[in-house]
Amino acid sequence: MNDKVFRTTLLAAALVMPIVCGGVILSLTTDASEALSHFGFFEFLFSDEWSYTPGNEHYGALPFITGTLLTTLLALLFCIPFSLPVSLFVGEYFKGTRMAEVLSTVTDLLAGIPSIIYGLWGFYTLRPLIMELGISPQGSGILTAALVLAIMIVPYAASLSAEFIKMVPADLKEGAYSLGATRAEVVRYVVFPVAGSGIFSSYILAIGRALGETMTVTMLIGNTNQMPGSLVDTGNTMASIIANQFGEADGLRLSSLIAIALMLFLITAIINMIGKFLIKRARIV
Amino acid sequence: MKKLNVFLFGAIMMFALISCKNTKKTTEEGRDAVELSGAGATFPLPFYNVIFENFSNENGDVVAYGGIGSGGGVRNLRDEIVDFSGSDAYLSDKEMAEMPAVIHVPTCMGAVVLAYNLPGVAELNLSGGVVADIFAGNIRKWNDPRIQDLNKEINLPNAEIIPVFRSDGSGTTFVFTDYLSKVSEHWKSTYGAGKSVNFPIGQAAKGNPGVAGVIAQTAHSIGYVGSEYAFAQGIPYASLMNVNGEIVKPTAESISAAASGEIPADTRTSITNSSATGAYPISCFTWIIIYKEQKYAKRSEEQAQATLDLLQYFLSDQAQQITSEVHYAPLPQKAVELSLRNLQGVTFNGKPLTHE
Question: Which residues of chain B does CATH 3.40.190.10 include?
Answer without folding.
Answer: 28-110+284-352, 111-283
